[in-house]
Design goal:
alpha/beta; Rossmann fold; six-stranded mixed β-sheet; single chain; 10 helices
């Protein structure tokens, strides 16, 4: 380990995490560390285990073997109340935004504050305005999600994720389904929020432009394993043929996306 890395505070640690569904091994011995204050990107093809690993980090899934440590806590030792308390220190931005259609923008952003704090509504309203201003949507409190564009919904999701001043924010495919300009806006927001709020950001994506725009470090997963971890520059110049094939989007290389099996076309990495 780099001496400088050994001095950094580890806020997330995976130690040989294994998860199987039926006869299929989805996570196959994942070990990595994520440091306080960095933007850490987890990339890889569909079905490589990215989202499954994310669900383990936030405690919604438990590994069959191995350990997950979040903010110094071994998740396997926590009861439900302790897990709920720990989750209040993290925020989550979902791929689909996951806004409640029956609630206004302001009500969506305030949801965690209403459920988990004793703040008066007047104070919650102030917090909502502040968080929406951070994502460029102040004044949109009374609109309904159906009145928003896809990019605006993503930004409301970001505002909700940071509403309770979390130490860590997780982003699941934050630019999926967005045009390049709006995706760039979301990438900039992730960077700005990380710096302004001094939070650790963990981003799951297969959007290569986002990877190289926002990451301090990158981990590439393949078939449930960590293929390589490094800075964007190290990943860009990796000598690993699989890494190069993936970041360049080449159909030719060691990663075989399809094979014929019986009468079915089976995806190997999906």
């Amino acid at each position: 380990m780099n001496p400088k890395e050994s001095e950094k505070e580890v806020v997330i640690k995976a130690d040989n995490v294994v998860k199987k569904f039926g006869g299929r091994t989805v996570l196959n011995g994942i070990s990595l560390e994520i440091y306080k204050g960095e933007t850490f990107v987890i990339m890889g093809g569909s079905g490589c285990g990215k989202s499954t690993f994310l669900r383990h980090i936030i405690g919604s899934l438990k590994p069959d073997s191995g350990k997950i440590y979040l903010l110094g806590k071994d998740l396997s030792t926590l009861n439900d109340d302790e897990m709920d308390h720990l989750r209040r220190k993290i925020g989550m931005s979902f791929q689909s935004s996951a806004l409640f259609d029956s609630m206004t923008v302001g009500e969506n952003v305030a949801l965690g504050l209403k459920e988990h704090t004793k703040l008066d509504k007047s104070v919650r309203d102030i917090v909502v305005k502040m968080k929406l201003e951070l994502v460029g949507l102040r004044g949109f409190e009374d609109l309904m999600p159906s009145q928003l564009s896809g990019g605006m919904k993503k930004r409301v999701g970001l505002a909700r994720a940071i509403a309770m001043d979390p130490e860590i924010v997780f982003y699941d495919e934050p630019t999926a389904g967005l045009d390049p300009i709006v995706a760039g806006v979301i990438d900039k927001l992730i960077l700005d929020l990380s710096k302004k709020l001094n939070i650790t950001s963990v981003v799951v994506t297969h959007d290569m432009k986002s990877v190289f725009s926002i990451a301090d470090r990158v981990a590439m997963l393949y078939e449930g394993r960590v293929l390589e971890v490094g800075t964007p520059d190290e990943i860009r110049h990796s000598k690993n043929e699989m890494v190069q094939q993936f970041i360049n989007g080449s159909p030719d290389g060691p990663i075989k996306f399809f094979q014929q099996k019986d009468d079915y076309l089976e995806t190997l990495v999906a």
